[in-house]
Amino acid sequence: MPRNGAAAGEPAARAERKAVAHRLLMCRPQYFDVTYSINPWMNPKKPTDAATALLQWEQLRELYLSLGHTVEVVEPVPGLPDMVFAANGATVVDGKVFGARFRHRERTAEGPAYLDWFAGHGFRELLWPEHINEGEGDYLRVGRRILAGTGFRTDSRSHAEAQEFFGLPVTGLTLVDPDFYHLDTALSVLAPDEIMYYPAAFSPGSRAVLREMFPDAVLATDQDAAVFGLNAFSDGLNVVLPQAATGLIARLKERGFNPIGVSLGELLKAGGSVKCCTLVLS
Ligand code: ARG
């Protein structure tokens, strides 16, 4: 049988990879600071530099625009320093918006703030959820299914609620390492059937599920995970990720992706990076 280049089972070559243009939602870190600690990365005694945070965030926004994506911006609210982490604001699939209900009181006001934005921007199917869930921090869509984190933030009861709302299969995964408290800190979707993840962040059962579902996944080393390398955004070709994740950058190149390293060191002081700042609308 004639084959075009790659042998069967071989990862797609770069020429076969295609970037898909997305519509993204971000929130300028105007009121960014670390004034409380709700994850091990946050140390309120360590100074933050607001100007640097703004600059790094702006560079990420401009990078997305240069890659052909559309970026919407939600107005930041004073007193909500973590609102820059737009991924947590909701989960959007097929235009349906599953609202976020935060675990910690420091962030609870963000749920309604994000939902208001959706209500005012033409989104008609909105759900204010019953169970705690932190949006796309813990819900990641892979093709026509959804991977869902639990263990630190999102209540596992939310997974059934999301499955019912979206009508798509939701697979629950348990996180066990407090440094990787959201699914998007331990796993990243690269293409509709490809992911990369850090096995040690998951319970043994969840690791087995991931091996079963994605036998060819890119696995992150301790070093890549420790610099938040999995907190990445992929459009199917370009993968935007922290530049310090050099191991992942090499693996992604071998797989035919175009990894683009960025520096978001200020936001990392709050335990967030590329994907945390990015809510995928479509
Ligand atoms: N300081 C924030 C928190 O602990 C960081 C959120 C990061 N967002 C993410 N999608 N992982 O809630």
UniProtKB/TrEMBL annotation:
Superkingdom of origin: Bacteria
Recorded GO MF terms: transferase activity
Protein name in the entry: Amidinotransferase
